[in-house]
From TrEMBL:
UniProt-recorded name of the protein: DUF2089 domain-containing protein
Domain DUF2089: 9-40, 42-87
Domain of life: Bacteria
The organism of origin for this protein: Ornithinibacillus xuwenensis
Membrane-spanning parts: none
Length: 120
């Protein structure tokens, strides 16, 4: 029986390291300090999103359809992944997108206007 790989400590939430690798076939064991790849540190939800994003070849419209979520939600999830991988996310675009979504929700702009503003 296999278990999901733990990447953070259940006690203090710091990132864990791998100390031992073992082959169940020949019983070779290698001990050292191994680090996880950045992708291994993403949550299950983030990994599922990235898999969908890749299968859709980065086409946000297709990701929207596949996951049944809006364009701003796709962008937000993508920005969360970028941030989780240790890269900076342009805060200006996040603020602008939230502002546009708010304007749309209040009826200040039409969906077509919101789409055009988000694309710009």
């Amino acid at each position: 029986m296999t278990h999901d790989l733990l990447t953070s400590c259940p006690v203090c939430s710091n990132t864990l390291t791998v100390k031992r690798l073992h082959c169940n076939h020949c019983h070779t064991t290698i001990e050292n300090d191994f680090e996880f790849s950045k992708l291994a540190l993403l949550s299950k939800e983030q990994l599922q999103f990235i898999e969908t994003f890749i299968v859709c070849r980065g086409n946000i419209k297709e990701v929207e359809k596949e996951l049944g979520i809006s364009y701003p939600t796709v962008r937000g999830k993508l920005q969360d992944v970028i941030s989780a991988l240790g890269h900076e996310v342009a805060q200006k675009s996040i603020v602008d997108e939230r502002k546009i979504v708010g304007m749309l929700e209040r009826g200040e702009i039409t969906p077509d206007e919101a789409i055009k503003m988000l694309k710009d």
